[in-house]
Amino acid sequence: MPGKTAKIFVDTDVCLDLLSGRQPFNAHAEKLFSLADTGKIKIYVSSLSFANIDYVLRSQYSTNHSRQIIAKFKTLVTVLFVDSKTIDLAIASEFKDFEDAIQYFSAIENGLTILVTRNTKDFKKATIKIVHPETYLTKAL
Q1: Which of 46, 106, 130, 132 could form a disulfide with 123 if both were Cys (CB 3.0 to 4.6 A apart)?
Q2: Which residues are 46's β-sheet partners?
Q3: Quick check: 61 pLDDT over 60?
Q4: What is the rounded distance in angstroms from the CA atom of residue 7 to the CA atom of residue 47?
């Protein structure tokens, strides 16, 4: 799509692959976020992701270092609010994993049509495109 920047929602698992260096998944995450860094795509994440990211990073790094990583990461993404409607939709949904439901409805409520996650099996009833990072990169590059 020349001239049109793709807009994608990225699930927390892919963000953590990048930020905590989870191998072998970090390679795809690095490529994905590199596309955002160069302006080829625009990545959206929910505000909930930041709490989850900090929780995991603090098991690897000091609080100060975790916050530094998060601050740099924030420059690559657009943060979406998780509001009352999003929570209501998640509560009423058939998702087994509540966090996945919140992520999904954050994307839906903001008009995003592509959600990138390694956890595709938990989004079987999705009405938007759910893709693995590797699959997205194959089609985007």
Answers
A1: 130
A2: 80
A3: yes
A4: 17
